[in-house]
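ugh finaly. both done.
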Amino acid sequence: MSEISREAGKPGKGWAQPLPLIGMLAVWQISAMLVNDSLVLPSFLDVVNAFGSSWRDIFFQDLPVSLLHFFLGIFAGMIIAMPLGMGMGWSRSLDKIIDPIVEVVRPIPPLAWIPFAIVWFGLTHESAGFIVFIGAVFPILINTYVGFRNLPRVYVESAMVLGATRDRDLIRYVALPYALPSIAAGIRIAMGIAWMCLVAAEMFGVSTSGLGYRIWSYYYLHKMEHVLLYMIVLGMLGLFIDKAFRSIIEDRLLKWRVGLTQ
């Protein structure tokens, strides 16, 4: 039995896991009671009451809109960045042509594109998705490029000896499997950046709905318990998306990296 299995089997481990969260909630509630100003620090109970009155808006209106913006940008970033990064990493000629353009555009903050997003797309889902795309495309592009560029030459030569002489076969059977861990890391980084870009875009006028938009509107109404509620929803949703991605990609498609056989 492994060390991890023995640790999991010890009595008392299960019930102790929620203790840090319970302690944090207790500290939060006590601190809010000491401050005694819901505008400065809403209490945990205030946030619970806010959830009771707003859960329909969260789950049936704002959450679906924000998820639409998020996945529009992420999928567009993957569609553009992965083939481009693969081409740059595989072909030095293509790398010399595209790399200067990438390095000029990449340092521009995604939020600087908000005026153009509004002009080009208006206050639409595509406008918010475009800002998410700008935030997501470069981490995926760079990690894909690095994964392909770092491919050992001996792998290519061995595949050619075994009959894979065409670039298409070498990319499919050698370069892409080798680069997958780097690509997965890039997508995971991109999701974190894209989530921040999504909230900022919705807050600063690119969208007329969504979690970020709702945070800003509740701030204007001085309903800080709702602001904090939506912040918690954002954090929990980001955690869920990251865990789901790691479960699908790292624990299944890339389980060979850690020698897992089950």
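ok and the 2nd:
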Amino acid sequence: MPIRIPAQLPAKEILEKENIFVMEEERATMQDIRPLNILILNLMPEKEKAEAQLLRFLGNTPIQVNISFLRMTTHNSKNTSKLHLDTFYQSFSEVNKKKFDGMIITGSPVELIPFEEVDYWKELQDIMDWSQENVTSTLHICWGAQAAFYHHYGLNKYELPKKCFGIYEHEVLLPNENLVRGFDDHFLAPHSRYTDIEYERIRNHPELQVLAHSDQAGVFLAGSKDGKNIMATGHLEYDATTLAEEYQRDHERGIKTQIPENYFPDDDPEKAPLYRWKSHCSLLFSNWLNYYVYQATPYEWD
């Protein structure tokens, strides 16, 4: 089934070339089914790239999905045009009277800044509080996951000795949980972050459970036991070349980031990286949409 997006969204052309089933709003109104309404709070600096990455996997499910994009009004984006934001994004005041079946809160390159010093932290807190009553399930990604751990469960991050940067092997710890249904016992996932949350603090929290863990990269998948909040500390949605682009960008800025681990063949940045996590990203998004959103959300919100 398709994802429903505005006809002029730039990601539409990218997705259609990849044979992802997208549907313009006019055609979608003719579908006599109950679609899922998903709100994406896109905190990534390159918003158009993040849009395509997320929509690629949201569109690979048997459920029609209506997408709305949310932006922060307390932060000025430097990498996305005002025209793009004004055309395709809404403010919190425009959506906070609505109900959403699912929500995604993305990562953001601010993990070295204390949460309270992030310029949009108060607005994000308001959104996360609102989500608990107005969203069936929220998927938090990377820094978005760390923000959820801190805001909802009081678990603060700590700075790593060096950037967690590369492709790491993870073990599924709770194979009977629906979120990891169909996963291999061990799977690969990208990480790109400078901070982490202590594994034992998450594991011992009475409201949380750890679903997947890496000896090198720590907790990857965790969630509240009621499925309301899902936290993914890495970036399964990343394209094959995203870490290479981050590595090149850091070096152009004079940041001596190490070569991403387990990424370039022979650790040679001149060689094209292999795309080895795509199938598990498809499973993650389809499992979340099916079991934590579609199966749990009311047909009609009160």
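summary for the 2nd one i guess: Confidence is low (pLDDT under 50) at residues 28-32.
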